[in-house]
Amino acid sequence: MKKRWMLTAALGMLIIPCKAQQNTNEEKPEGKAIIAIFTNLHSGFGHNNNDRGFELDRSYLGYQYSLPNQGLEFKAVMDVGQSDDVNDYHRIAYIKNAQVTWKHKKMTLNGGLISTTQFKTQESFWGKRYVAKSFQDEYKFGSSADLGVSLAYDFNNWIAADVIVANGEGYKKLQVNDGLQYGAGVTLTPIKGLICRVYASYNEAAEKEMEDITNLNAFLGYKNQAFLIGAEWNYQSNAKNIKDQNQNGYSAYTSINLNKKIGLFGRYDYLSSKDDWNEANDGSAALLGAEFKLGKYIKLSPNVRMWVPKADNAKNSYYAYLNCSFTI
Asked: What are phi and psi of 20, to 5 degrees?
């Protein structure tokens, strides 16, 4: 019931500005297709030598429709990817976004199945989603989309804030259990190219015997035309709604643009859990690669990866990848 009221309120907030703008002068709408395909060819080495082949990581198919004079934007995106619930050879299609956005002066309001704000800034800054997910996405600290409403406001050129209320279950489980997730973030850009952000969220447990989840993260990055460098720290309490299943980690990444079409990049992740409850998945990851832009829509990235597990009896893993991105 709580979620129904939330969705009704979100849609109501978006309908009000639509009504207010109906009498404005006619304008020419703008629409564009959204197509993104991420694929790779990879091979493991040593004990992972048999793990090799082509892989379709992700396919995003959708459409975006804008009414610029009214500040309105409508977006619907289908996500086709892997699922842990079926054989790896199969693909599952989900609705990733079905959202309405209203922009008015310094305010942006989103409602529906929206992109979440928990790690969107870091993902955009990292800029290599087709190569690897950002830290929180990769290690399941949160979802990139959810059913809810978000509000962002730019106070001036260097400080902005945002809040979000969502289901807290991600876009693959839109309304399964009760409980909501509340999040808030502040972003600072004191000088050109420098960005600082802090974010916190609270996810209500669906049942009494389950624990509430808290997420905290901080990000600092600098970017110019020649290079970028960024680092983030992430913390989650009561992971999977289990008491004291806390985990934390950090990620650091950089890239250098050799010219407009060729660049180099590197990244290092570290994940740790309290009292080693997640020891099988704890460890360090390193990634080093190059990026080649073949025209406007295609990117290729040969890269090598290493995973060093925390468990004493586990072996290191080494891989070589060739990732490809096609986006319009």
From this structure: -65, -25
Tokens of 227: 């290079």
Residue 7 is predicted with a pLDDT of: 47
Residue type present at position 103: K
Rounded CA gap, 211 and 242, in Å? 6
Domain count, the chain: 1
pLDDT for residue 21 is more than 60: no
Domain with residue 99: its CATH number is: 2.40.160.10
How far is residue 243's CA from residue 265's CA, in Å, rounded to a whole number?
A: 38
304-309 average pLDDT score: 98
SS (H, E, C) the chain: CHHHHHHHHHHHHHHHHHHHCCCCCCCCCEEEEEEEEEEEEEEEEHHHCCCEEEEEEEEEEEEEEEEHHHCEEEEEEEEEECCCCCCCCCCEEEEEEEEEEEEECCEEEEEEEEECCCCHHHHHHHCCCCCCCCHHHHCCCCCCEEEEEEEEEECCCCEEEEEEEECCCCCCCCCCCCCCEEEEEEEECCCCCEEEEEEEEEECCCCCCCCCEEEEEEEEEEECCCEEEEEEEEEEECHHHCCCCCEEEEEEEEEEECCCCEEEEEEEEEEEEHHHCCCCCCEEEEEEEEEEEECCCEEEEEEEEEEEECCCCCCCEEEEEEEEEEEC
Range 149-154 average pLDDT: 98
Domain that holds residue 201: 2-22+31-327
Instruction: Determine the pLDDT at residue 51.
Output: 94
Question: Tokens 């304008």 label which residue?
Answer: 27
Which pTM was predicted? 0.87
Distance CA 128, CA 135 (A): 12
